C-alpha cells in the first residue's frame, strides 16, 4: 500500500493548491479483491468463499456493511463486532482498498479535484478518472465518473476528445464516494469519538450530501455498474444518500432512460444544449441516433417525474451557436408540459476548442426569458475553474496534456 497523502486542509486555500502527483510507478493494484462498493449480495457471496455458514452470511454481511459505510472502516481489524477468526479469514482473502487518490487540487473557492487511480487492465498502467467535490452553504456535492473517457464526442466537451478506455465497476463508482468521505473525514464518529467531540464543534451534517453523475463518461452506456454502484450509495443502512439527492446526467441514451427511472430511481439530468435536431446533431452527435422528439418523450414518461421531482435540462451557453433569444423562446416551447428545471452552464473552455462562452449579458437575457416562462433558471456558477474541475474540463492523464497545455488552460480559466 502506498502512504496516504499529506493531511487535508480544512479551509480553502488563498490560491489554488496542488498536492504533488504520486509517480505512476508507485501504483500497486490491490493484490486481493476489495469488498468496497460491492452490492450486499456480493458481500454475502464473498463470505461464502471463506466458508461462513449460509445461515450467518446475511447477518455478517450486514455488520460488515455498517463498518464500511457508516463508520468508514479502512481495515478489518476495526470491525470489532466480528470475531477475531472471521477478521483473520477476511484479511487473508480480501481487502478494503478504495480507488487511490493520486493527486489533489484545491481551488480558491474550496472545490477539490481528485485524480483517482484505478487498476489498469491486464496489470498494465493504472487508469485515471477525476472526481470533484463542490462545497456550498447548504450542501456538498460530489461529482463522480462512470467511465475512463467516453465513446461519444460532444463537440464542446473535453472528455469527449479522450477515447473510451474502459467502464468503471460498481465498486469503483461507489468507491469514489467512500474515498471522498475518507479524505474529508466525513464518517459517523464512534461513541467514544462523540464524547471527545461533544464539547467542541461536532459536525452533524454530512459534507458529502449530494451526488451528481456528471464526471467523465456517459453513465447510461455503463448501465448495470452505474445502477449497482448508485444503489450501494443510496442504501439507507450504509452511505445513505437519498435518491432524491443523486442526479444522473445523460447525453440522451433514450432506451436506458426508462430503465434508470425503474431500476435506480434517481433524479435525471439531460444534456440538451440545442433546440433543433440540426444543431444538436453537431453538438451532441448521439442525437443522430436518438432524435430530440424521442428524447423528450422519454423525459415526459420518466418514472416518478412530477413537479416535485423535475428533470434538469442542461444547456451549455456557446457564443453565437445556441444562445440567441429565439433559442431561449424555442427552448421554453420545447419543454412545455415536462416538469423541468433549466440549468444554463457557461461554457468552460479548453485548449483547442472552437467554442467560446456566451457573453455574460447574453446569458442574463437568455435566462430572463426562461425565468419569465416560469422556470427557475439558475446559471451554474463555474466552480473550480482554476483547477480545471468545471463541467466538461475533466480529462484524465490516461491521455496526458503537456505541462504547457495545462498552463494555457489554467490561465484561460482564471482570466475568463
Ligand atoms: N456524459 C454525461 C455526463 C457527463 S458531462 C452527459 O453528457 O450528460 C456533464 C455535463 O457537463 C453535461 O451536461 C455536459 O454537456 C456538460 N459539459 C461538457 N463539456 C462542457 C464544457 N466544456 N463546458 C460546460 N459544460 C460542459
Ligand atoms: Fe461524453 Fe457527456 Fe462529454 Fe458528451 S458531454 S462527450 S456524453 S462526457
Note the topology.
Layout: E1 17-18, H1 40-49, H2 54-71, H3 84-93, E2 100-106, E3 112-118, E4 127-135, E5 140-143, E6 147-148, E7 166-167, H4 170-183, H5 191-198, E8 210-213, H6 223-234, E9 246-250, H7 254-264, E10 267-271, H8 277-283, H9 292-300, E11 311-317, H10 325-334, E12 340-346, H11 360-372, H12 403-415
Parallel strand pairs: 5-8, 8-9, 9-10, 10-11, 11-12
Antiparallel strand pairs: 1-2, 2-3, 3-4, 4-5, 6-7
Helix pairs in contact: 1-2, 4-6, 6-7, 7-9, 10-11
The structure holds S-adenosyl-L-homocysteine and iron/sulfur cluster (SF4).
Iron/sulfur cluster is lined by residues 150, 152-154, 157, 159-160, 217-218, 251, 271.
> In percent, how much strand structure appears in the residues?
5-15%
Number of strands: 12
Helix content: 25-40%
If helices are DSSP runs of H or I spanning 4 or more residues, what is the number of helices? 12
Q: Order of strands across the widest beta sheet?
A: 1-2-3-4-5-8-9-10-11-12
Largest sheet, in brief, is: 10 strands, mixed
Alpha carbon gyration radius: 22 Å
User: What average pLDDT do the residues reach?
Assistant: 85
Unreliable spans are 6-13, 195-204, 397-416
What is the N-to-C succession of helices and strands? EHHHEEEEEEHHEHEHEHHEHEHH
The class by helix and strand makeup works out as alpha/beta
Cα-to-Cα separation, first versus last residue: 41 Å
Distinct ligands, ions and cofactors found in the model: S-adenosyl-L-homocysteine, iron/sulfur cluster
Tell the overall outline: globular
Amino acid at each position: 500500500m502506498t502512504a496516504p497523502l499529506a493531511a487535508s486542509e480544512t479551509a480553502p486555500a488563498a490560491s489554488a493548491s496542488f498536492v504533488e502527483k504520486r509517480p505512476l510507478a508507485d501504483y500497486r493494484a490491490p493484490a486481493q479483491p476489495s469488498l468496497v462498493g460491492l452490492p450486499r449480495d456480493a458481500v454475502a457471496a464473498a463470505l461464502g468463499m471463506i466458508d461462513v455458514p449460509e445461515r450467518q452470511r446475511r447477518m455478517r454481511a450486514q455488520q460488515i456493511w455498517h463498518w464500511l459505510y457508516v463508520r468508514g472502516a479502512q481495515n478489518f481489524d476495526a470491525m470489532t463486532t466480528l470475531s477475531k477468526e472471521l477478521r483473520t479469514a477476511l484479511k487473508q482473502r480480501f481487502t478494503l482498498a478504495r480507488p487511490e487518490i493520486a493527486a489533489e487540487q484545491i481551488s480558491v473557492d474550496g472545490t477539490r479535484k481528485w485524480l483517482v487511480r484505478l487498476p489498469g487492465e491486464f496489470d498494465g498502467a493504472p487508469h485515471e478518472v477525476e472526481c470533484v467535490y463542490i462545497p456550498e452553504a447548504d450542501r456538498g456535492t460530489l461529482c463522480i465518473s462512470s467511465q475512463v473517457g467516453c465513446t461519444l464526442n460532444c463537440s464542446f466537451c473535453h472528455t469527449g476528445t479522450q477515447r473510451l478506455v474502459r467502464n468503471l465497476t460498481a465498486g469503483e463508482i461507489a468507491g469514489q464516494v467512500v474515498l471522498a468521505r475518507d479524505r474529508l473525514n466525513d464518517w459517523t464518529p464512534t461513541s467514544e469519538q462523540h464524547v471527545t467531540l461533544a464539547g467542541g464543534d461536532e459536525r452533524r451534517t454530512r459534507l458529502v450530501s449530494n451526488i451528481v453523475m456528471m464526471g467523465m463518461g456517459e453513465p447510461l452506456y455503463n448501465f448495470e455498474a452505474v445502477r449497482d454502484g448508485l444503489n450501494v450509495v443510496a442504501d439507507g443502512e450504509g452511505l445513505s444518500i437519498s435518491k432524491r439527492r443523486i442526479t444522473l446526467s445523460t447525453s440522451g441514451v433514450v432506451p436506458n432512460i426508462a430503465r434508470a427511472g425503474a431500476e435506480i430511481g434517481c433524479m435525471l439530468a439531460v444534456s440538451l444544449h440545442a433546440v433543433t435536431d440540426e444543431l444538436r446533431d453537431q453538438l451532441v452527435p448521439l442525437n443522430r441516433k436518438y432524435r430530440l422528439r424521442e428524447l423528450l418523450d422519454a423525459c415526459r414518461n420518466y418514472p416518478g417525474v412530477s413537479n416535485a421531482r423535475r428533470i434538469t435540462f442542461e444547456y451549455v451557453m456557446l457564443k453565437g451557436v445556441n444562445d440567441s433569444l429565439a433559442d431561449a423562446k424555442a427552448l421554453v416551447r420545447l419543454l412545455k408540459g415536462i416538469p423541468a428545471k433549466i440549468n444554463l452552464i457557461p461554457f468552460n473552455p479548453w485548449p483547442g476548442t472552437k467554442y467560446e462562452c456566451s457573453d455574460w449579458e447574453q446569458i442574463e437575457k437568455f435566462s430572463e426569458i426562461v425565468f419569465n416562462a416560469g422556470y427557475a433558471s439558475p446559471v451554474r456558477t463555474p466552480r473550480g475553474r482554476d483547477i480545471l474541475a468545471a463541467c466538461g474540463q475533466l480529462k484524465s492523464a490516461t491521455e496526458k496534456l503537456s505541462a504547457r497545455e495545462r498552463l494555457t488552460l489554467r490561465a484561460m480559466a482564471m482570466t475568463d
